[in-house]
Design brief:
- The complex is a heterodimer.
- Chain A is built from no helices and eleven strands.
- Chain A starts with a strand and ends with a strand.
- In chain B, strands 2, 4, 5, 6, 9, 10 and 11 form a seven-stranded mixed beta sheet that branches. A four-stranded antiparallel beta sheet of chain B has the order 1-3-8-7, with no helix packed on it.
- The radius of gyration of chain B is 13 Å and the shape is globular.
- Classes of the chains: A mainly beta, B mainly beta.
């Protein structure tokens, strides 16, 4: 079946570097994407979202890029800090029927930031 | 503003017992979603509820699992006759009552261990 997946399961960076976490999705009908951060023992924390009619969206230190041509989503974190260490998930919403708001999550990327 | 609340945070049950997981959505939210997360995996959708209605239960096992969101009180995910394979983290998310927003806010989760 169609699903969201990630290219890299782990990413290690030095404090201060920029991080890029990638996500591939296979359902061209997906109209909404979210990035979540999950720290150990906690629930997913909303980072940033983007609708399919946009290519780029910026937040505080984070940018999400959407390339619908190749069905690719990325999360860029500027000046990565040790507190950014966590598992990052992308999630998509596939519209239609009763699936309103039902998110399909990727496997996750473990980001480790070294001081 | 209180976020999504879940209790208990940790639950240990023996095989064959019942597990009841509770979720109180954020204030003003009337949409509730339940997800299950196995170790080192992404979240998997289980069920989507609005007050007194199950909207989408396509991710819920047909047997032993049930969910409700009564007019008053928290949403309940009930697992009867638990088995070891039910051991997982169960997350609840809520979203606002108005349409057009997919943004979901997650609770801290309930970690169920079946011995």
């Amino acid at each position: 079946g169609e699903s969201v997946g990630l290219h890299l399961p782990t990413l290690s960076v030095q404090e201060g570097d920029n991080s890029i976490i990638n996500c591939a999705y296979s359902n061209s009908a997906s109209d909404y994407f979210i990035w979540y951060k999950q720290e150990s023992g906690k629930g997913p924390q909303f980072i940033i979202d983007i609708r399919s009619n946009m290519d780029k969206r910026q937040g505080q230190r984070v940018t999400v890029l959407l390339n619908k041509t190749v069905k690719h989503l990325s999360l860029q974190i500027a000046a990565t800090q040790p507190g950014d260490s966590a598992v990052y998930f992308c999630a998509e919403n596939i519209p239609g029927g009763t699936s309103y708001g039902k998110l399909t999550f990727g496997q996750g990327t473990i980001l480790t930031v070294h001081p | 503003n209180a976020g999504v609340m879940q209790n208990p945070r940790h639950l240990v049950r023996r095989r064959g017992q019942e597990a009841r997981l509770r979720c109180s959505p954020m204030k003003g939210h009337s949409h509730v979603y339940w997800y299950r997360q196995l170790p080192e995996e992404g979240l998997k959708f289980m069920v989507y509820l609005q007050k007194e209605n199950i909207i989408d239960e396509s991710g819920m096992p047909k047997e032993r699992f049930s969910a409700e969101f009564p007019k008053e009180g928290p949403s309940i995910l009930r697992i009867q006759q638990v088995v070891r394979g039910d051991s997982a983290a169960y997350f609840c998310a809520s979203s606002p009552a108005y349409g057009g927003s997919y943004e979901q806010y997650f609770g801290p989760g309930t970690r169920l261990t079946v011995t």
